Amino acid sequence: MQCARFILLPLAFLVVSCGEETNTPYEIPLLQMTTPTSATLVWETERKEPACLTLELEGQPATRETTCYPSDTLHELVLTGLQPATHYRYEIAGVKPDKTEENPLPVTSHTFRTPDEATKPFAFGVMGDSHGKVDVLVQLLTAATLPGPRRMPIDFLLHVGDAVEDGGHATYFTDLIEPGRAVFDGLPLYAAMGNHEEDSDWFYHYHAYPGREDYYAFTHGNTFFVVLNTNKDYTSSSKQYHWLVQRLASPEAARATWRVVSFHHPPYGQGWGPCGDFTGDADAQEYLVPLFERQRVDLVFNGHVHGYERGSRQGVTYVTTGGGGGGLDHHCQSWDHIAVAKYAHHHVRVEIDGERLWLRAVGLDGQLLDQLQLRAH
């Protein structure tokens, strides 16, 4: 989201507003960028209108605090001063221009949990290439949020791109936000841009990530995450490549036990639709793979190939998880290092506890497609 910012001091809320009128009756909030002490909310209304947000510790109404701010259609709210590993409840109330404050819009109530500090175990889900197949998306989102073998709920979801079939406003709403409403108002979504997002303004409109927003980095627990945009230049002379070099050499990356990178186009691919058209991204092989090996990246997630593939080279594990709903590809060629290739709709679940990492790929029917355990370098 690229908009003017202003700060409301009473509750240490940072509010970002954009003034574009829309015809979308969408008011559900999207939870994004949570840390142990902060969380970001994004929501949109049909027309410009003022809104109020009330926040409390869940089950402790005496902690309620409310702030209101001016009329607009798209809002980004950064909540700061939160407590780690804590459940919060919040309400958003708007007032339509033709109504009074005594006759507001219905209040919507939601909950979220801040993550633990760096030493605590955590889990996250990964999927990609949903392509607007809402029925599959809903099933995978529901399955991904269930506790795994170690009974850990996921803290967030990584999407490796092509969440929508095209980058239009209506498509973003109908293909992603509306079907995911039961998940995304309480579970942060970290998305990479795929080719089907078409570098659309709506990607920036609905996502509130740091910096440029189409490539960014964050830390969760003991793990450093980088999300890239392989639809834009990332060769060695590009701004994105130099940014990536700096982030992988940063103190945050050095302190992390695990380093995870996600982007849409995989360096290697065995499956495709018409065979011969794609065997992996040559630029990723030339520019990203050597960097990952030098900077001790542990795990790389990709999409684009509609299926599941997993292999390791020079200490880096590559996982393609493009089975989020789009039409499935089939096996075309082989790479020596790819150990598993299955072309089925699925999601991936990752659980991290200190220097141990467990990865499971699970199909729509609950069938286990693959599992892997890693130890940190």
Describe the structure.
With 377 residues, the protein is of the alpha+beta class. It has 2 domains: 5-113, Immunoglobulin-like (Sandwich); 122-375, 4-Layer Sandwich (Purple Acid Phosphatase, chain A, domain 2). Helix content is 15%, strand content 38%. The protein is built from 7 helices and 22 strands. The chain has helices at 134-144, 169-177, 181-184, 201-206, 239-248, 251-255, 282-294; strands at 5-8, 13-18, 30-35, 38-57, 65-80, 87-94, 108-113, 122-127, 154-159, 189-191, 216-220, 223-227, 258-262, 271-272, 299-302, 308-313, 316-321, 330-331, 338-342, 346-353, 356-363, 368-375. The strands form 4 sheets. Strands 1, 2, 3, 4, 5, 6 and 7 form a 7-stranded antiparallel beta sheet that branches. The chain has a 7-stranded mixed beta sheet with strand order 11-12-13-15-17-16-19, with helices on one face. Strands 10-9-8-20-21-22 form a 6-stranded mixed beta sheet, with helices on one face. The longest helix has 13 residues, at 282-294. Mean pLDDT is 85; it is low at 1-26 and 95-101.
Features:
seven-stranded mixed sheet; 377 residues; alpha+beta; 2 domains; disordered N terminus; Immunoglobulin-like
Break the fold down into its secondary structure elements and pairings.
Blueprint lengths: L4 E4 L4 E6 L11 E6 L2 E20 L7 E16 L6 E8 L13 E6 L8 E6 L6 H11 L9 E6 L9 H9 L3 H4 L4 E3 L9 H6 L9 E5 L2 E5 L11 H10 L2 H5 L2 E5 L8 E2 L9 H13 L4 E4 L5 E6 L2 E6 L8 E2 L6 E5 L3 E8 L2 E8 L4 E8 L2
Parallel strand pairs: 8-9, 9-10, 12-13, 13-15, 15-17
Antiparallel strand pairs: 1-2, 2-5, 3-4, 4-5, 4-6, 6-7, 8-20, 11-12, 14-18, 16-17, 16-19, 20-21, 21-22
